[in-house]
Amino acid sequence: MAGTQRLPLHTQMLMPRAGINRAFALLYSCAILALLYNHFIDLLQSTSMVSVFLLLADSVLAFMWVTAQAFRMYPTHRQVFVEHLEHYVKESDYPGLDVFICTADPYKEPPMDVANSALSVMTYDYPTEKLSVYVSDDGGSKLTLFAFMEAARFAAHWLPYCRKNKVVERCPKAHFGSSNPSRFPETDQIKMMYESMRVRVENVVKRGSISHDYITKEGESEALSRWTDGFTPQNHPPVVQVLLENGKDKDVTGHGVPNLVYISREKSTDSPHHFKAGALNVLLRVSATMTNAPVILTLDSDMYSNDPQTPLRALCYLLDPSMDPKLGYVQFPQVFYGINKNDIYGGELSHVFEVHMPGMDGLAGPIHVGSGGFFRRRVFYGCPSETLEMNRDRQVSDSINSREVLAMAHHVAGCKYENQTEWGRKMGFRYGSLVEDLYTSCLLQCEGWKSIYCNPKRPAFLGKSPINLHDFLNQTMRWSVGLLEVAFSKYSPITFGVQSISLLSGLCFAHYTFWAIWAIPVTIYAFLPQLALLNSTSIFPKISDPWCWLYVVLFLGAYGQDYLEFVLSGGPTQKWWNHQRAWMMRGLSSFTFGLVEYLLKYVGISTFGFNVTSKVVEEEQSKRYQKGIFEFGVPSPVFLPLTTAAIINLVAFLSGFAQACRQRSIEDVFLQMFLAGFAVVNCCPVYEVMAWRRDQGKLPLKITVISVVLAWALYSASSMAF
């Protein structure tokens, strides 16, 4: 047995590219210093606003590049051996697992999708008596509760079906919708039951009311009767409904089922609710009164389990006696299904999960990304060296549905419960930012907790990504506002991280939290050289000047490194091109609006709220997306920077070409024409929606007209300036 226990649960190795990354960082840093030196010399010789803007743009680019290198110093690869877990712990000794799923709007996050996510984790290869699923409905919708009543009934058939046939894809929607579905004797019958459930739930959501014919189980009418005339999403009492209870409810084969609990916390217009962080803290407290499992999994409403052994992979780290006792959580990547062939919006976030996460794994560990994180419950109650009263809400009871436990659960779900407590500051998920996941995980690491990145070959979870440009840009804008809130918070993890963890970890935090300043160089380089070109003004060195080639080296070096990392991780060239274009779009639109929104909020003019990204997909929109066609469609101001830049760059490139033909030389304007031409190629989808498209995804004429006016105004202003 002693020899058997030496079988490793996991391995860890430094990726081979680390040495190359370090050498390249040294050489590229020298080039950056040379460029900044040249800018300072130019400023000393002739101070002009153009020189100041170029220095500002290149300084920000240098900052973003330097902080990004922190991810590349210690990239780490890990491998897990689930088959060795039985040599360390018996299945009966597995720790309890509480799964938290959050939803907020039944019309943007379809209840049927949320139910599919819950059913996928209820069928984990895990002891059912140790598994509980808690669903937070921040929209306070009886439609969502009804969907989970239906899911609870269907689970009695779905769980034994998956168990008997060893189904791997245990999300019903994915299983039955697969292009090559597995066929078993009961498949048609179970599929018919699923379709019947889906139709009932979707009919209820469409009508906005629940027919009495759909209420078939004792107690369901009483649960739904809480939705009275005064019950609104912003003002209502707490609702805690136990839908399935292990030890009491059984599946059709007589086996036990996991606990399934619906929760809608109390809301009041007089009390702050702290968005998703507040909902997660209520789940922490309610689950503590019921099951109090030592391990917690957080899951987005649109993320479903794609591997029934995922909890066992997490246990290979959490139960390994050789691991650092400060290990706080294991983070799995977010992988998205339904992405079109070339990922036109960069929705896969490949660099985050293929470069940044492995890089942070070699330091103090990856950040939490809102979903797919297996946490030790005790991380939410203080730093590793502290001993706080974790279980003060725990009530000892044989039944989670007893009157005493439910009374306590309703109490801790009240909106006044957190008053005069440390919740949101030193306990639970932290308040103060729209990106509560990153903020909380950063502060946990600053307190001494470690994390691990687990990226198995088969994705642990699959979720949805926006399939139209408006949702994509708005989602990124919300992130940028939240990240700036983190950067300038009272407990900023940037300085705290440098002091308590390491310089490299602090640089990683800084790179994320200052994402929004990417708007500064992108905006400057998208407009300033082109406006100068339109006014026949050269602002860059000539081709014959050696400093000109320094720009070329820096451009090719940055893009070359980015390209190699992308293709070496398995991405095709066309997808890489779309990803870099998506970052340009983020910089011009999302980050610019996010930066302005944060500044307005900081001075008290605006209060940016949490806006749920819609997960509803229209059929025609989906067809266009799968063909790789950009979707504009709505007259939103977030498109104005993109369309205005597209117009100015096209006109500037044509103007520069005409100048070059007249002078029979492009020596003076080579770099400016290159930037304009590069932007024009990137803006091809914008020109298409402005001029040629006739479908519903075209750019509204209103935005085109406003963009032309803005472009003309910028040109007029630049004519006077130059």
From TrEMBL:
Identify the InterPro entries for this entry. Answer: Cellulose_synth, Nucleotide-diphossugar_trans
The source's superkingdom equals Eukaryota
Give the residues the record marks as binding UDP-alpha-D-glucose.
Answer: 108-109, 138
Question: What Pfam families does the annotation carry?
Answer: Cellulose_synt
Write down any Gene Ontology CC term.
endomembrane system
Q: Where does Mn(2+) bind?
A: 276, 300
Q: How does it sit in the membrane?
A: Multi-pass membrane protein
State where it is primarily located.
membrane
Q: Where is the active site?
A: 138, 437
A Gene Ontology annotation in the biological process aspect, one of them, is: cell wall organization
- SUPFAM superfamilies linked: Nucleotide-diphospho-sugar transferases
GO function term, MF aspect, one:
cellulose synthase (UDP-forming) activity
Q: Where in the cell is it found?
A: Endomembrane system
Instruction: Provide the coiled-coil residue spans.
Output: none
Transmembrane ranges, per UniProt, are 20-37, 49-68, 512-534, 546-563, 583-600, 632-657, 669-687, 699-717
Keywords annotated in UniProt: Cell wall biogenesis/degradation, Glycosyltransferase, Membrane, Transferase, Transmembrane, Transmembrane helix
The UniProt entry, under PANTHER family, shows: X-BOX TRANSCRIPTION FACTOR-RELATED (PTHR13301)
Which protein is depicted?
Cellulose synthase-like protein G3
Which organism does this sequence originate in?
Answer: Vitis rotundifolia
